[in-house]
User: Fold this.
Amino acid sequence: MTAMSGLRLLPWSDPDGKPCYLAADDGNSPLSRRADEIEELQVSMGTELLGHARALLEDRKADARELRFLADRLCEALRDVLRVAESRGGRLLSRDEDSAAQLDDGPDESGEYQGKGLAPDRVRGLS
Assistant:
């Protein structure tokens, strides 16, 4: 999710090449799970492509056409992995903000903290 909007950047684009976002509080929705699967596949394919790239670059007989094809595939893989990193980074920021908000929750009427977060003085063991 992006920190400002609460939206998750999805690992695909619309037909015009614009980014797609998911507005969902539940990270376990069917669309969220599908996006997770596609992100895993994109990272895996990038890793596999990197191995092929190393082998092709070491091959002195590789011609310009093969190297251009490789460069195109590497660009695609890099684009995909950067989108995955942006999406996951945004979700980490969102979780950090949620955790900070829970830590800022004060005590209830009885003066007790109700488990949403830890009171700072109790974290330090001063109570």
